Every structure is written in structure tokens, then in C-alpha cells.
Automatic annotation (TrEMBL):
Binds 1 Mg(2+) ion per subunit. The active site is at 13 (proton acceptor), 41 (proton donor), 148. It comes from Salinibacter ruber. Its cofactor is Mg(2+). This is Adenylosuccinate synthetase. Keywords: Cytoplasm, GTP-binding, Ligase, Magnesium, Metal-binding, Nucleotide-binding, Purine biosynthesis.
Length: 439
């Protein structure tokens, strides 16, 4: 059972890219199973004493490791311009992509009208009421998934036949133009220009297109080790997140099976990634959000700005009620805790262990936004530490308060912390943390 899944366990931006990059040398294939170019997985490494940084939006994070094949699964919505630009940037670093990147023929395409409609919808919501605005990235992800499930989407395989593509596009664009023109008073789109653009795109990606489900099945039968990565986080899952302030796909464990076409019986490890505190981008409820100096300090010290949009992230204390919920939904075998170093220098650390709602305390996470907005987080206060821990490589060298912080999380969740990231670089990682729950 050689499939491992790496899953964001909060509202996204937990540091999945670094952990996938760390685990990639031990696998044969890294496969992305959902989301689109709204994801931003940042990789930071040291080269000859200099720090290099690269942000991936579509290509899986294993691409920087020679011998690792990367798969973009059918559950991903593909932006043609974004994928071509990303391939070009990766190759400019001297990294060979040819033969190492496989794109599902069943992946749905993001079309220009998806971006246009999403922009018009967000503008309409913003003008109507701040409470209605979702806070999307504007990459056309939601409308692309809408068309997928309405059975009107355009898939990569549709590019193979220009007549079929033109017929399907003409029907879709006529419908979308009516919406843009009559509902949002926006400019209509040109069918022929879009067809020409996407036929050209097909010629450029044809060598990458594969029946990835069949490819993965053969590879697994031959004993290959597969690492599956999602985008966003579990609390943004369209079914299990804070709906409607969510993404339009399934970042949770179940999304791996449907987004890649692999069987649940192939999965043997589910690794949840969580920050040592919480962040959220966009609108929606956030019980432990900090509006004052501490929240601002976390944002500045942690570099909490979206890798895709540059938007400042909302910051708050670690929410164990929410994390316990995502542990349940995903069945995590273990956790990787990131950005522990950002908490250095804070005298007292607060951790949410219960919600107070309608006069009662509960450990239940209410995914209904109207209820989640009303909960009052109940905190345990733990001592902080002053020392800079960014160069620590062994758990025993952490300050006692930092070790206690890890142990508190493990004991509350009853899930082992197997990795601790204490900085953005590849080398800033602690792996010998298994004994912490007994501390």
C-alpha cells in the first residue's frame, strides 16, 4: 500500500510545499489531486550559501528532485497559460520537465469566461454586501468546477478534436456571454479567438497528456511509491469546510481517490500539515483571529502574505477544536507542525481547546458559518520561550516550553507529531519528535 497523502489541516497555507519537497526523494511519483492555479506551494533551499525560493501553482512540489515523476490528476482544473509559464520557469532553472510531468487527459480546463464570470460575481457581491463576498483568488477556479459538475466543462481530451472543441466552446461561450452581458453588464468574449488560443495550447502540452489513472495503476502494480498532494486546506473543503467560504473541490483525504483515480486500499499514510498558529486568507469565520499587535507581529515575522495573490493573511492562535475536527475527517496517521520558530519571543501562548456557544462549551467544530462566527474560543495559556529555535535540529535541543507546546498538541489530538518545521529552508526541520506525547 504505497500511497501517502499530504493534506493541509487548517485553512490552507500550512507549508505543504516544503513537506512534499522534503519527502519527495523517498518516492517515485508526486501527484496533485485537486485545486488549480489558486494554490501556492513555496519551496526554499540553500544553494552554495545562497537562499533560493520558488513558488509552484500547478506542477507538484516533487519536480525539483531528479528521478521523481510528477502527475497532475483529473481532479485539478488546469489553467493553460499558468501551466505553460510554470514549465518555462522550472526549465529556466536547468530542471528537466520533459518525460517527468504527466497531465491527465480528463482534467478540466479553465477558460477565459471562467475568470470573467468569477470577477463579475465577486464585484457584484462586494457592491451588495461585504458579508457576501467570498474573497476568491480570481483565477476562475469556482466557475470551472461549476461547469465540470454541470457537465458542460471543457477537458484536456477535448483539445484533440478541433471540431468538437469548437462546437462545445461555441455553446458554452454563447451561454456565458449572455450571463456576462445581461446579468453583469460585462464585455462579451470572442469564440474564434479562444478556439485558436486553445488549439495552440494543445500543441504545446500534447507530449505531457496521459491517462494518468491508468499510469498510476500500472506504477503501483510495479511497486512504485506515490506521494499525493492537495491544495488549500481541509477547512476549505466544499463539503467539510466553513461553507460557503470554501474552495470548490475536496482538499481532504477523499479527494485523493477521486482526483487521481487511485483506490482507497492503496493508501497507507495520511500526513496532516498544521501551522503552530492559524492563518486564513479571504473572508469567512475565523474564531481565534487576532486583530491587535500579536496578530500583526505573527503576520510580519511569519511572512504571512499569500504566495499566489500577495494578500495579507489573517492570523490567530492555534485552534485545536478545528484541528481535532480535520483529524477526524481525514484520519491522520501523524502531523507535521510548521512555523514553530515564529512563536519564539512571545511570553504566553494561547491555544483554543473549546468553543463557548449559547452558554455551553463544546469541542464540536460547527461548519455552519453563522454558528462558527458566534463561538467564543476558550483558551489554555502555555508559557512561551525567548530562544531563536530556527537552527535547532533535534527535539531535545528545543526549549522546554517548546517541547511542552508540542506535547500539549499531541495529547489533545491523540495524533503523533512526526515532523516539526522551524524555518522555510529545506534544512530547517526536526524529525526526531516521536516521543513528545509522553513528555
Amino acid at each position: 500500500m504505497p500511497v501517502s497523502i499530504v493534506i493541509g489541516s487548517q485553512w490552507g497555507d500550512e507549508g505543504k510545499g516544503k513537506i512534499v519537497d522534503l519527502l519527495s526523494p523517498d518516492v517515485d511519483i508526486v501527484a496533485r489531486y485537486q485545486g488549480g492555479a489558486n494554490a501556492g506551494h513555496t519551496i526554499v533551499w540553500d544553494e552554495e550559501g545562497e537562499t533560493e525560493e520558488f513558488v509552484l501553482h500547478l506542477v507538484p512540489s516533487g519536480i525539483f528532485h531528479e528521478g521523481v515523476t510528477c502527475v497532475i490528476g483529473n481532479g485539478v482544473v488546469l489553467d493553460p497559460k499558468a501551466i505553460l509559464e510554470e514549465i518555462e520557469k522550472i526549465e529556466s532553472l536547468g530542471i528537466d520537465v520533459e518525460g517527468r510531468l504527466k497531465i491527465s487527459h480528463n482534467a478540466h480546463l479553465i477558460m477565459p469566461y471562467h475568470k470573467a464570470i468569477e470577477a463579475a460575481q465577486e464585484e457584484d457581491r462586494a457592491s451588495a454586501s461585504d458579508d457576501d463576498e467570498i474573497g476568491t483568488t480570481g483565477r476562475g477556479i469556482g466557475p470551472a468546477y461549476t461547469d465540470k459538475f454541470a457537465r458542460t466543462g471543457i477537458r484536456v481530451v477535448d483539445l484533440l478534436d478541433e471540431d468538437v472543441l469548437r462546437r462545445k466552446l461555441r455553446r458554452s461561450i454563447e451561454e456565458k456571454n449572455a450571463i456576462l452581458r445581461d446579468v453583469y453588464d460585462a464585455e462579451a468574449l470572442d469564440v474564434d479567438r479562444i478556439v485558436e488560443e486553445y488549439v495552440e495550447f494543445d500543441q504545446k502540452i500534447d507530449d505531457y497528456v496521459t491517462d494518468t489513472s491508468a499510469y498510476l495503476s500500472r506504477a503501483l502494480n510495479d511497486g512504485a511509491r506515490v506521494l499525493a498532494e492537495g491544495a488549500q486546506g481541509s477547512l476549505l473543503d466544499v463539503d467539510f469546510g466553513s461553507y460557503p467560504y470554501v474552495t470548490s473541490s475536496h482538499p481532504t483525504a477523499g479527494g485523493c481517490c477521486t482526483g487521481l483515480g487511485v483506490s482507497p486500499t492503496e493508501i497507507d499514510r495520511v500526513l496532516g500539515i498544521a501551522k503552530a498558529y492559524c492563518t486564513r486568507v479571504g473572508n469567512g469565520p475565523f474564531p481565534t483571529e487576532l486583530d491587535g499587535e500579536v496578530g500583526q507581529a505573527l503576520r510580519e515575522k511569519g511572512g504571512e502574505f499569500g504566495a499566489t495573490t500577495g494578500r495579507p493573511r489573517r492570523c490567530g492562535w492555534l485552534d485545536l477544536v478545528a484541528l481535532r475536527y480535520t483529524c477526524m475527517v481525514n484520519g491522520f496517521n501523524e502531523l507535521a507542525l510548521t512555523k514553530l520558530d515564529i512563536l519564539s519571543g512571545i511570553d504566553e501562548l494561547k491555544v483554543c481547546t473549546e468553543y463557548r456557544y449559547d452558554g455551553k462549551t463544546t469541542r464540536r467544530f460547527p461548519s455552519e458559518p453563522q454558528n462558527l462566527t458566534r463561538v467564543e474560543p476558550q483558551y489554555e495559556t502555555l508559557p512561551g520561550w525567548e530562544a531563536d529555535i530556527s537552527e535547532v535540529r533535534h527535539v531535545d535541543d528545543l526549549p522546554r516550553a517548546a517541547q511542552d507546546y508540542l506535547a500539549f498538541i499531541e495529547n489533545y489530538l491523540d495524533v503523533e507529531i512526526g515532523l516539526v518545521s522551524n524555518g522555510p529552508r529545506r534544512s530547517q526541520i526536526i524529525t526526531d519528535v516521536q516521543p513528545m506525547a509522553a513528555a
